[in-house]
Specification:
The complex is a heterodimer of chains A (138) and B (198).
Chain A: E1 2-8, H1 12-22, H2 29-37, H3 40-47, E2 63-68, H4 71-80, E3 85-90, E4 93-98, H5 100-109, H6 113-120, H7 127-137
Helix pairs in contact in A: 1-2, 1-3, 5-6, 5-7
Chain B: E1 2-8, H1 11-18, H2 23-26, E2 31-40, H3 41-47, E3 54-57, H4 76-80, H5 84-102, H6 107-110, E4 119-127, H7 128-138, H8 145-161, H9 163-166, H10 172-176, H11 189-196
Antiparallel strand pairs in B: 1-2, 2-4, 3-4
């Protein structure tokens, strides 16, 4: 089974930070977004406090993977979680998408080769959240 | 009211990765995150009925409502009727809220006296297919004026960002070529088609 992250919402962690601050700040979300895009250090600080937040702050993004898997392997994942969407591309190739919450919750529930690779695929796009999920998954 | 598309997954990347799937097939894999600002709580109640979407909304548990009179949405019909009763009630609600907060009542309880007209802002994320459905329902002439204005503003942002995906989006009569509202139809389908034609 092979998993490759091929596209995602730009500046994923900045969007997580915007979401975290939107609920408790009087500032408008678009203003928070502008400020945080210009301040990656602040993004790291805010996202670093992730454990005290609701899971829905991880939903404001879309990640898309190219998956090479047999029909049985893909079906196993589909039956495990309804929050990852699949489109067959022919043969053993699939387009799969979901958000960070889907990945985090799936990985915390089930430790398999697939979930390990799924989490590892986040290393560059969302390094703080990647580390957070890895810690959670133990 | 303001709607701004903050981020989306680019269609071009997905098309390349999928070996050339068309925009419609890729819709469920496309994600769109909007900043929705200064709408009424009445409008946000309608918005969250689209439960496949994700929301992060300003919380009245944490944010103190100051100058409520300047932070309300007044419907045009109320304004047309003079708006005196509306303004009076908002003034009273504002005063009651502040008195409760001053007496040490937590904001999460003091907010019970705030009206549906109180402004709120939020982040909203939807996949492409669900967004089409949202536009189908909420750009419709039968939708309530505020959420229709919001849907129109969001559609404009989406069309500016990905015209290939969203030029076909609009109220269901525009998407389908017929009105699915049956006996509730507004009877102004041609007007809608002209308005939403890309």
């Amino acid at each position: 089974m092979r998993i490759e992250l091929v596209a995602h919402t730009p500046d994923v962690e900045a969007m997580v930070a915007v979401s975290m601050l939107t609920t408790t700040s009087g500032a408008q979300p678009s203003t928070l977004h502008e400020r945080l895009l210009a301040n990656p250090v602040k993004v790291g600080e805010v996202v670093g406090r992730l454990e005290v937040q609701h899971g829905n702050v991880l939903e404001h993004n879309r990640l898309v993977w190219l998956v090479e898997a047999t029909r049985d392997e893909a079906l196993d994942v589909m039956l495990d979680t309804r929050f990852l969407t699949f489109t067959g591309l022919g043969g053993d190739r699939w387009l799969m998408s979901g958000n960070l919450r889907a990945v985090a919750e799936y990985a915390s529930r089930k430790e398999t080769e697939f979930t390990r690779r799924l989490v590892d695929s986040l290393r560059e796009a969302a390094p703080t959240i990647h580390a957070f999920i890895r810690r959670g998954a133990g | 009211m303001k709607a701004r598309l903050l981020a989306h997954t680019p269609l071009a990347l997905l098309r390349e990765a999928s070996g050339g799937l068309d925009a419609e097939s890729l819709q469920p894999h496309l994600g769109y995150t909007f900043a929705v600002e200064r709408i009424s709580r009445a409008c946000s109640h309608q918005l969250v009925r689209h439960r496949v979407a994700s929301f992060s909304q300003q919380s009245q548990r944490y944010i103190t409502v100051k100058r409520l009179q300047e932070r309300v949405v007044m419907p045009p019909s109320v304004e047309k009727a003079g708006g005196a009763e509306f303004k009076e009630l908002v003034g009273e609600a504002s005063e009651a809220y502040q008195l409760l907060v001053d007496k040490g009542v937590p904001k999460e309880d003091a907010r019970f006296v705030l009206p549906n007209a109180a402004e709120t802002s939020l982040l909203m994320t939807m996949d492409g297919r669900s967004l089409f459905h949202f536009f189908g329902l909420r750009c419709c002439n039968r939708a309530q004026w505020e959420i229709r204005a919001l849907a129109d503003a969001m559609l404009k942002e989406a069309r500016d960002a990905e015209p290939e995906v969203f030029d076909a989006a609009g109220p269901y009569c525009y998407q389908l070529g017929y009105c699915p509202e049956g006996r509730f139809t507004c009877g102004r389908m041609q007007e809608a088609l002209d308005r939403y034609r890309a």
